[in-house]
Design a protein that fits this description.
The chain is an alpha+beta fold and about 650 residues long. It has 19 helices and 33 strands. It has four domains: about 55 residues, Beta-grasp domain (Ubiquitin-like (UB roll), Roll); about 170 residues, Threonyl-tRNA Synthetase, Chain A, domain 2, CATH 3.30.980.10; about 270 residues, BirA Bifunctional Protein, domain 2, CATH 3.30.930; about 90 residues, Anticodon-binding domain (Rossmann fold, 3-Layer(aba) Sandwich), CATH 3.40.50. The structure holds zinc ion (2 copies). The site of one zinc ion (ZN) has 5 residues, from helix 2.
């Protein structure tokens, strides 16, 4: 007998029995089983003991089951509407679900409404969803009979003799589950989008059509999500980038995944870089510059040619030597370290560089500024003695929170990745080193009062790490910072320092990037602010707007005065437009400050100050406006 808590909160003692019929008899609706916190199918045999809960449809753990069931409803509808379609895979994802298909004819967005309609019909028909176990031979015959080549490929990878299928009405799909009891429970869903997706993510295989959708337990939650999506769509950096003339990526002329920073994007980047460099000097870092290419032997020593080759571009030959574009900056920093004998008194050494690296990414995964092929890491390597490691990690975390805070990020999620304790042989470095490194990471996090999730088995083979994710204004999580121990490269490059005992010792090395890469960070900043950057980052801080042609000289004088005060100001005198047009344009360009110059203002030597929020602050002397802007900039204020 096992005690089962039902969705109503009532408990029942059950032997094994058919849980679905127990629920039906009691008029309760369940979505899935939680067995000791693990999600299972309602149709699974009950465990002999343990804590078993039938979760209701609106339980957070049930969302995945709901969405995966919605993906089956989608596939069901598609097989009705498009005979001859082939099914690939249809998982639940973070905020919805998708299903990959190979359509006999290309699908367009215009087809989505009628697919949605057919799905609604399948929901109304309320088909019970059954789990069917087929012997392998029968499963194969079924799929072969329907010409389901992708499913057959998946089947070959399932080692079991009995194969799990789920059936609803006339539709049956190879699937591990879990699923809801019936299609009628998928009430609040929407199809969202189409995209191309390679079968198994492999560019050498078939291009399939991915249909995206989402589903929620309530209509309100769905409506809220659709509003959120619309807001995210408006903030998409791939739209705002060209609109605000910040950057471009030109696949045909320049190459995919390679970013051109336009003057306005570059002005913003200059602010990021200047701030970053100054704060690093203040924190005791030394800035270095290193080349974009390095000899093959360097990457052999570092090990990148062994364990990172697929992320690197083909070598180029120069005077009979092979060179590679750098995928990482570390070997160069180590080469600087090794130009001298370092004593224990020289440590810690902290080399920082805005280092541009090139990594191979398949064209299918490139995504605006978020996933590119050439990018500038805000990289640093901290080389120190074992007794310094704790302070170094703590200081690194301080700097991270300070810098991310200045950009307006105050909500963090932290993950600590450590070894899989059951597979220690897959990692290099001694137990003592792993323990010491992990302890320093934990103490630093606890010292800052940051809660974190410990991820066992998530560490890379050469050391534990902390990843920091920020939550943006739409509560989306972005991974920015990584603080990563490395027990590998100091060994491979035979790094040493002379201890107070006169003997050579191996230093610790930590790689860290706070912003991640400037390109990706820029993309996230654009979306976080929806392009309306705070004054210190805004590419153009002030637009000076003459009311008529007569005020052009005055406006130009005002802009020049602001520029002398260190403010990025432009007089908008090239186009003869109405003031209304100019103000609207400045608002579209999200310029924080508009300085309107009419005849009256020109005569009085003042400007009428407007904010991009629409607020009209009236007449002010130019010097007062300059003071206000400079003050906001100096404080890196988010206010105007
Ligand atoms: Zn399924
Ligand atoms: Zn590194």
């Amino acid at each position: 007998m096992v005690h089962v808590v039902l969705p109503s909160g009532q408990g029942v003692d059950l032997d094994r029995g058919d849980l679905l019929s127990v629920l039906r008899e009691r008029g309760e609706t369940g979505a899935a089983l939680l067995v000791d916190g693990e999600l299972r199918d309602l149709r699974d045999p009950l465990p002999p003991s343990g804590e078993v809960q039938v979760v209701p449809l609106d339980h957070p753990a049930a969302l995945e089951v709901l969405r995966h069931t919605a993906s089956h409803v989608l596939a069901h509808a598609v097989t009705r509407l498009f005979p001859g379609v082939q099914l690939a895979i249809g998982p639940a994802i973070e905020d919805g679900f998708y299903y990959d298909f190979r359509f006999p004819e290309p699908l367009t967005r215009d087809d989505l409404p009628r697919i949605q309609e057919e799905m609604e019909k399948i929901v109304r028909e309320d088909h019970p969803i059954e789990r069917v176990w087929l012997p392998r031979a029968e499963a194969e015959a079924l799929l072969r009979g329907r010409g389901e080549d992708y499913k057959l490929e998946l089947l070959r990878e399932i080692p079991d003799e009995r194969i799990s299928f789920y059936r609803q009405g006339e539709f049956i799909d190879l699937c591990r589950g879990p699923h809801l009891p019936s299609t009628g429970l998928v009430r609040h869903f929407a199809l969202l989008d189409l995209a191309g997706a390679y079968w198994r993510g492999d560019a050498a295989r078939d291009m399939l059509t991915r249909v995206y959708g989402t589903a929620f337990p309530t209509g309100e939650a769905l409506a809220e999500h659709l509003r959120w999506r619309e807001e995210a769509r408006k903030r998409d950096h791939r739209t705002l980038g060209p609109e605000l003339d910040l950057f471009s990526i030109q696949n045909e002329t320049v190459g995919a995944g390679l970013v051109l920073w336009h003057p306005k994007g570059a002005a913003l980047r200059h602010q990021i870089e200047t701030f970053w460099k100054e704060e690093h000097y203040k924190a005791g870092y030394q800035l270095v510059y290193t080349p974009h290419i390095g000899r093959a032997r360097l990457w052999e020593t570092s090990g990148h040619l062994d364990f990172y080759r697929e992320g690197m571009y083909s070598p180029m030959a120069v005077e009979g030597q092979e060179f590679y574009l750098k995928p990482m900056n570390c070997p160069f920093h180590i080469a600087i370290y090794k130009t001298r004998t370092r004593s224990y008194r020289d440590l810690p050494i902290r080399y920082a560089e805005l280092g541009t690296v090139y990594r191979f990414e398949r064209s299918g995964v490139l995504h605006g500024l978020l996933r590119v092929r050439g990018f500038t890491q805000d990289d640093a390597h901290i080389i120190c003695r074992p007794d310094q490691i704790e302070d170094e990690v703590a200081a690194c975390l301080d700097l991270t929170l300070h810098i991310l805070g200045a950009f307006g990020f105050r909500d963090f999620k932290v993950a600590l990745s450590v070894r899989d304790p059951a597979g220690k042989e897959h990692y290099i470095g001694s137990d003592g080193m792993w323990d010491e490194a992990e302890r320093s990471l934990v103490r630093a996090l606890e010292g800052k009062g940051l809660s974190y999730t410990r991820m066992e088995g998530e560490a890379v083979f050469y050391g534990p790490k902390i990843d920091i994710h920020v939550l943006d204004s739409l509560k989306r999580s972005w991974q920015l910072t990584t603080i990563q121990f490395d027990f590998n490269e100091p060994e491979r490059f035979d790094m040493a320092y002379i201890g107070d005992d006169g003997a050579a010792h191996r230093p610790y090395m930590v790689h860290r990037a706070l912003l991640g890469s400037l390109e990706r960070f820029f993309g996230i900043l654009i979306e976080h602010y929806g392009g309306a950057f705070p004054p210190w980052l805004a590419p153009v801080q002030a637009a000076v707007l003459p009311v008529t042609e007569g005020e052009i000289p005055y406006a130009e004088g005002v802009a020049a005065e602001l520029r002398r005060a260190g403010i990025r100001a432009e007089a908008w005198t090239k186009e003869r437009k109405t003031l209304r047009w100019l103000i609207r344009e400045a608002q579209l360009q999200k310029v924080p400050y508009m300085l309107v110059c009419g005849a009256r203002e020109a005569a009085a030597g003042v400007v009428a100050l407007r904010l991009r929020t629409g607020e009209d602050l009236g007449a002010h002397p130019v010097a007062a406006v300059a003071d206000r802007i400079r003050h906001r900039v100096a404080e890196r204020s988010l206010e105007l």
